[in-house]
Amino acid sequence: MKGIFLTTVALLTAFSSALNIPASQFKDLNPRDPLPTLNGSHLIQPNDPPGFTVLVNLDDTPRLLTTEKVYLAAIAVVADWASEGWDYAFPARGPRASKASYGVEVSYKSIAYPQKRYQLQVKYLVLGMLHLINQMTKVEKFCRGTAYVVMREEPMGYVELRVSGDPPRTNDVLEENLTATGRIIDPTDSAFTIKYDVNGEPMSCVDLLSTTLYAVATAAQGGSDEYCQDLAGFNEKRSVVFQILGIRPTVSMQLLGYGLARRGLNLLARKLYHENACGEVKFSFYYHGDVLGGGSIRLSDFAGTTTRS
Length: 309
Prior knowledge:
By secondary structure, the protein is an alpha+beta fold. Helix content is 25%, strand content 29%.
């Protein structure tokens, strides 16, 4: 994902006055090279469109956030946003919305006026989330942070991460065993299950979760009922690769849509984190017992030494 970051006085002044944040607190970010993708993938990892800008403000004075739980919360909320559609526009200057999970509160809001050409859309929030977490990773400080998204110098809105007062939920995934090989039942639809097998090299939970976030963000570009035939890519560090292949459905068979793929990845990430079973994993998605497809998360050829967290 390649960013085009503007640090003009006009933009900083606009955000500072509108949001009552000193311009000096904004962090200058460097453009990043596009991530490589695998041949045959029908969706590539989301890139910043021309004219798109992200301004990040990190505030390390409150309590610090737990890195793994930031990823878990981000995975969950990106999956929720994606259910609305990649191009869905949030109500102009609508109320601030928030979701708390794993002790992390994710808030977002449109600040664009209705008559403006560019409105806050799901795709801009997803990109803002990726940039925000990447900046936290870059400075090695997971703390309260806000990403302000701009298109062609028109402010559209923001996404913010902060410590939540709500305790993390640890029992929202139905489970049949506590081994590294098992089955997950979707608590919202018992017909949808995921079988998994952690049978490869160990990796840090941060690497596993960051890769899952990129997989969900990539799948967010597809419609929930659109056929997820082939989805592949890397995490930000290029150290871990993901791939999902959908089985071509028959007339009487449920297809693997991007919505199910996102939901399955979210459930899988939570399960492996709670089991502390972070490593190379193979998984399959089932609906009413029919296999819809499957995939893997594994160390890439670029990976160096990883440690289990």
